[in-house]
Amino acid sequence: MKKLLLTFALSLFGVMSFAQIEGKWKTIDDETKQAKSIVEIYKKGDQYFGKVSQLLIKPANPNCTECKDDRKNKPILGLEIIRGLKKDGDEFTGGTITDPKTGKTYKCTITRKGDQLNVRGYVGISLMGRTQTWQKVN
């Protein structure tokens, strides 16, 4: 009976952690296929946010000079690029993601598949965007 309860508890933990996005993720550029940075995703209240915690490729400009909001001219290292995501079933949606290179902000949806996140930024509807695959950092 104890083995059955332990198996159930571990299975439940596995399912619950599978759908979570909190932690550190290596960003992979969808065009160059190179690792660019480490983004740490964390939860505040019922929303999820993500900030650049490490740069793997030195950017041409270390600040977000193209950002239009409160992030303008802030260092990319430590910059909050994901804001306001909420969990909706297996997806995290309703928030935004900012590209520090261009300063553009997009609607964002994230889904987790094992040790990978599919991070989709888009304008208007989800069909009008692009997806990056980020890898879990252990």
TrEMBL record:
Give yes or no: UniProt keyword Zinc: no
Matching InterPro entries, A to Z?
Answer: DUF2147
Keyword Signal found: yes
> DUF2147 domain location, by residue?
23-136
Keyword terms? Signal
Instruction: Tell me where on the tree of life, at the top rank, the source sits.
Output: Bacteria
Q: Where is the signal peptide?
A: 1-19
Which Pfam families does the annotation name?
DUF2147
Q: Where are the transmembrane segments?
A: none
Classification via PANTHER family? BLL5882 PROTEIN, BLR1215 PROTEIN
The protein here is known as: DUF2147 domain-containing protein
- Species of the source: Chryseobacterium arachidis
